[in-house]
Amino acid sequence: MILDLFRLDGRVALVTGANRGLGQAAAIALAEAGADVASLSRQEPRETEAVIRGLGRRFLALQCDLLAASVEELQGIVERVVRELGRLDILVNNAGIIRRAPALEYREEDWDAVLQVNLKALFFLSQAAARVMVGQGGGKIINIASALSFQGGILVPAYTAAKHGVAGLTHALANEWAKHGINVNAIAPGYMETDNTAPLRADPARFRAILDRIPAGRWGRPEDLRGVVVCLASRASDYMHGAIVAVDGGWLSR
Ligand SMILES: NC(=O)c1ccc[n+]([C@@H]2O[C@H](COP(=O)([O-])OP(=O)(O)OC[C@H]3O[C@@H](n4cnc5c(N)ncnc54)[C@H](OP(=O)(O)O)[C@@H]3O)[C@@H](O)[C@H]2O)c1
Predict the structure, then answer these.
(1) How far does residue 160's CA lie from ligand 1's centre (Å)?
(2) Deepest of 16, 67, 103, 199, by most Cβ within 10 A of its Cβ?
(3) Which positions ≥6 away from 199 have C-beta within 8 Å?
(4) Domain boundaries, the chain
(5) Neighbours of 84 (CB within 10 A)
(6) What is the Å distance from ligand 1's center to 47 Cα?
(7) Which residue, by CA, sits nearest to atom 39 of ligand 1?
(8) Whether residue 191 lies in the annotated active site
(9) Pocket lined around ligand 1, Cβ cut-off 6 Å
(10) Residue 66's closest CA among 12, 11, 23?
(11) pLDDT (tens digit, 9 = 90+) per residue, 52-101?
């Protein structure tokens, strides 16, 4: 039956930034669909762990700072998931940071940090995961891109460059790894209510200007991502390679 295509029983997912925001919603959705979940973050994912264990799924918390992690450490993260949970079927590259400043004043350390977390770590985690998935005969990689994978944004040059890079990498890796049964796709969220956008929501004029431009008439919420995440993690998306699915209330269609 069609709904069975979306079931993830017996699968193992690694979600970066699963402790809060969009990553937390993604991790819980995958667990609700049947997957066991490993979480990577700096802070302890206590709330996510409680919910996922409450669903009867296994949960592994991995502490890692993607700003400082070497490629070998990222490989070690993937090896630990396989050692402790038995396999790795799904990688959600969600962890990300944003640093806002005018391009004329943008500092090198902010540029390097944003590119490191949002793009370099995403690539090398994908590489480590894909090596396991090739051996298993397939897998699912879901990158969290952004509306700023397509637009310029305001005061976020490094973020925009990184998210354009995420879109490009999604295509490049999909191209290379489709033959191994690995589906590499991305989700481009619009403006969502998380810590990432707290400064925008705290500025009444900016909040209103953004809201007025969203056809759906509201900001997005983390749970708005759940259906697409499960679809891209499941057999339902087996013929999707290199797609970037906007979940943005229509923002990019405007
Ligand atoms: N919110 C939006 O409107 C929006 C729109 C488009 C795209 N996105 C993207 O969606 C993703 C999730 O964003 P969000 O809105 O959920 O943001 P958020 O609430 O700020 O959460 C960011 C997540 O990334 C993790 N993270 C950040 N730096 C890290 C590091 N150095 N090492 C390990 N983990 C790190 C955080 O873990 P710790 O708590 O441990 O730091 C946290 O779980 C990001 O890639 C973001 O760019 C968000």
Answers:
(1) 15
(2) 16
(3) 100
(4) 2-247
(5) 13
(6) 16
(7) 43
(8) no
(9) 17, 19-23, 41-43, 64-67, 94-97, 117, 144, 146, 189, 191-192, 194-197
(10) 23
(11) 999 999 999 999 999 999 999 999 999 999 999 999 999 999 999 999 99
